Amino acid sequence: MISGKTWYPAGSTNERGAGVKRTLTEKQKKTLSLAAVVIFILLSLALAWFVGRPLIRFARQPEQFRAWVEGHGLWAPLAYAAMVFLQVVVAVIPGEPLEIAGGYAFGAWQGTALCLAGAVLGSVAVFALVRRWGRGLVEVFFPADKLEKLHFLLRTSPKRTALLWLIFTVPGTPKDLLCYFAGLTDLPWRTWLLIATVGRLPSIVTSTVGGSALGEQNYRAAVIAFAIALAVAGAGYLIYRAVCRRHEQNGHKETPGG
Known about the structure:
By secondary structure, this protein is mainly α. The protein has one domain (26-254). The chain contains 11 helices and no strands. The longest helix has 38 residues, at 96-133. The protein is globular, with a radius of gyration of 20 Å.
């Protein structure tokens, strides 16, 4: 059982029905969601035109593609980092393909750095937005039932922070959902920045290393990297499910009056 107080940020509603300071109407939710999708589509079209066409053309000639990337100076890495940033903010877009593409185009080290930079900036932006708008913003991207599964993380305790570390660091867990949910807690900014940075490394590194191996046509290394990533992600997902199920059962035992 996790002891300690339960913290409800501005924009959320506590279990006893306390007043809501900031909420989003259904119309505002739809407007925000539509705006996010439109921005993502526009950025994706731009990246497809300036980056995607050369990527397809040089897919079997990684040396030429890298030369193209280097020839476009800051544009290519900045565009890639911006897309990773947007992927985290939009939340419903899977991040693994972008991580693999980063390793393929920029190599393992630079791909990891760019992907991590975009992901961390996106995580910080999400954290700040949720702190400002509360649960209403989170529900734009995630249904209430998914949020309820993580309700145990609202309780302030050292064990809560350790659980966030565990869930966020293990590959295969829904990190974008956790980014949004973390903003509903009283987690300190410094702690969240550390979790969002270090916690993303295992997943990003395995994907970019695999992508880099593909770019170098080292298919054996790529298969090994992706096999390890899949195995760890599968184990991570099972751990995440087990943690949520355990605390959900504990929550039922503690309900009303308990």
